[in-house]
Amino acid sequence: MEGGGSDGSDLDNLKATELKLGLPGTGEQEKLPSILPRSSKRAILEANEGPSKRNSSEIKSVERDQKPAAKAQIVGWPPIQSYRKNSYQAMKMEAEPTGMYVKVSMDGVPYLRKIDLKVYKGYEELREALEDMFKCFSLGEISRMNESNGYEYAITYEDKDGDWMLVGDVPWEMFISSCKRMRIMKGDEARGLGSTP
Amino acid sequence: MRGERSDMSEDEDGGRGGAGGGDGAGDGGTDTPVPFSDQVLENVLENVLQFLSSPQDRNAASLVCLPWYRAEAQTRRELFIGNCYAVSPRRATERFRRIRAVVLKGKPRFADFNLVPNNWGAHFQPWVSAMAAAYPWLEKLCLKRMSVADSDLSLLAHSFPNFKELSLICCEGFSTAGLAVIAEKCRHLRVLDLIEDYLEGEEDETVDWVSRFPETTTSLESLGFDCVGSAVNFEALEALVARSPALRRLRVNHHVSVEQLCRLMARAPQLTHLGTGSFGSAAAPLLQGGGCSVVDLARTFAAFKSLVCLSGFRDVAPHCLPAIYPVCANLTSLNFSFANITAEELKPVIRHCHNLQNFWVLDAVRDEGLQAVAATCKDLRELRVFPLDPTEDSEGFVSNVGLVAISQGCRKLRSILYFCQQMTNAAVVTMSKNCQDLVVFRLCIMGRRRPDHRTGEPMDEGFGAIVKNCKKLRRLAISGLLTDKAFAYIGKYGKLVRTLSVAFAGDTDLGLRYVLEGCTQLQKLEIRDSPFGDSALLSGLHRYYNMRFVWMSSCKLSLRGCKEVAQRLPRLVVEVIRDRDEDDDDEGVQKLYMYRSLAGSRNDAPSFVEIL
């Protein structure tokens, strides 16, 4: 059942404090729709199994906590069939169903990040977001290649042909439709890309 | 989509009592030998009666006299049983010996909304066992809200060599293993339609049932599995479609990507009904040119000259929608109820759909989207608007504005299901005047007991206008703030109403009284969370034998009142259903389900069901 008002935030807090192996915000969401059938019997059955069924026992504990709070929640209202309700929940949880997530790597940084290109309206916003994301690692500002002096890094992307291109040359729409991943290149390598004819 | 299964819809089912009717003429199988002249008469009758198809007509014919009863029993080919507990399998199979098709319904409709605990009943097993012995030539089976086990499906597959059509609607208890047996053993299978079922074991190992169909050309006409949660073997599916020349209806589940759909469609351009699965891309978004492009997709659709029904769109990428433009003009049925699209995304599609008769959509399209529907779909018969956020306090996406627009544009509307947060009487009154053909009116104001948001008044006048002006109305679902007055209107004017759904409505027992006394055609009554008590229940004693069932939950009933009903009406099965955490000694009855029955108390009732 959907949480409403304070009940919902209690559940959010509970879920937020639960230990998970994945990064925050991943994993549980994909599993959630398929394990939320209309009947609780499945959740109860799976809760008896081992740690491999982590997600379902999470669900079970959520359901258990929901039960006393569920007295305030009305069972079966509004009258939507459970499978439909579950589908809609899944649709809403994928906040951007057609989000364009691409990996962003930065030279010298041990792990990658992922950003949703659709969230940004243009190159400026993208650059700011990347700076923000990697600010603890960068020694200076991540500058656009067009500026003639003093850059530490360059933002590049791999297009659908497999070529590494400099970010900023093509119109934004064309860029997001052809960008498969991004790489923030360091110093010398970057300079090579930037040389203007 | 449900539209074409009108024989399964709650408002069009056949007959009062199905097999139970005509019982007064005597049991099937008398012992005295039949005189010769009567035998001739029976033969003549049989030849005539075989042309009677409607169950109501047949029930009436069977009541005339004994020879007619017997002749009718011999010639009935389709058995419709609206409540699996109303008659025992043995009795049904003894009376009707030559059945080829069975429709069997089980749980009360409120089971869809988690109001009926698991394992309540409606087991298919006793029925399939009886039919396996009695109807070896059975061809068609349609089950709704039944509990069906894999072993039942296996027995079915092994018992009926001529089996052709299986439809399972809102059923549960079976898994892909059961489907595998059906696919493998039913060599003449034409129809396998799985509609809104819950399969077991979807997270575990699933069986590759699609590979089990015969290797040769199949006679499949319809294959629908959009409710199956697990992915099917796509290569096997593609090969199956390729060797099924008679296939007209195909509904795949959301695991089938739009690229895969393209491949399937290329194999079956003769399809009339298509469930598109996800309609989203498996790999990279279509925009990046991965796989089938929108242009290719559109070209594929353009080849579909006979397509009239489209559904699916589970993860639709809005930019893929233009691909369906080539077929829109021919569509009579479009199900967007899983497509989270905006009005702007809907408009270019709906603009082409002049011939649309059935439209299911999410309220995400807002009033604006509905206005676009009203502007184009002049032939619309059925509209269902589902809420993307089905909670009481969500933002209302559609309102009285959308309802009025629809009523003004779609004058031929017969059936509407409309979810909204709040409504006005004026809008409902307007609809009652504009859409005189309404047979089904279901308005769900999700905010419980919410009054007219413009006047602050109860919604009595709106619903009153509906029952008064829509003279063909057979099915009604009411909501919002409603006083006994609304029920008075329904009792006074709702003379054709067969199905009534009530939630969080009414003030006193009078409300229910009005309905029970006034609605002479009432068959199915489902009430929840309304202040009706024992005296109201007892005011309907004259009605209950003429009804399929009554459901009342979270009302003001007590054990004493229910026991009295059970006592006064011995042929009525009165079930008191208790939730797990309820006190056994509690005098109040939380859930009452009662139904007429020739079979008496069922012997498969679980511990939480008390039959009074």
TrEMBL record, chain A:
Tell me the gene name. LOC103720508
Query: Cellular component GO terms, alphabetically?
Result: nucleus
**Pfam (any one):** AUX_IAA
Q: Where is this region: Disordered?
A: 1-71
Quaternary assembly: Homodimers and heterodimers.
Q: Which family does it belong to?
A: Belongs to the Aux/IAA family.
Renumbered to this chain, the Basic and acidic residues biased-composition regions fall at: 51-68
Extract the SUPFAM superfamilies matched here.
Answer: CAD & PB1 domains
Q: What does this protein do?
A: Aux/IAA proteins are short-lived transcriptional factors that function as repressors of early auxin response genes at low auxin concentrations.
- What subcellular compartments does it reside in? Nucleus
Q: Which Gene3D superfamilies match?
A: Phosphatidylinositol 3-kinase Catalytic Subunit, Chain A, domain 1
Q: Which superkingdom heads the taxonomic lineage of this protein's source? A: Eukaryota
**What GO terms describe the biological role, i.e. biological process, of this protein?**
auxin-activated signaling pathway; regulation of DNA-templated transcription
The family database entries (InterPro entries) matched by this protein are listed as: AUX/IAA_dom (IPR033389), AUX_IAA (IPR003311), PB1-like (IPR053793)
Its recorded name reads Auxin-responsive protein
Annotated keywords: Auxin signaling pathway, Nucleus, Repressor, Transcription, Transcription regulation
Positions of the PB1 domain: 99-187
TrEMBL record, chain B:
Principal location listed in the UniProt entry: nucleus
Instruction: Cite the Transport inhibitor response domain residue spans from the record.
Output: 98-143
* InterPro entries recorded: COI1_F-box, Leu-rich_rpt_Cys-con_subtyp, LRR_dom_sf, Transp_inhibit
Q: Where is the COI1 F-box domain?
A: 38-77
Location comes to: Nucleus
Please give the residue ranges the record annotates as the region Disordered: 1-36
Pfam families reported in the protein's UniProt record: F-box_5, Transp_inhibit
Q: Which GO terms describe its cellular component?
A: nucleus; SCF ubiquitin ligase complex
Q: Gly residues bias: where?
A: 16-29
Entries under SUPFAM superfamilies matching the protein: RNI-like
**Classification via CDD domains:** F-box_AtTIR1-like
Which protein are we looking at? Answer: Transport inhibitor response 1-like protein
**Species in which this protein is naturally found:** Phoenix dactylifera (Date palm)
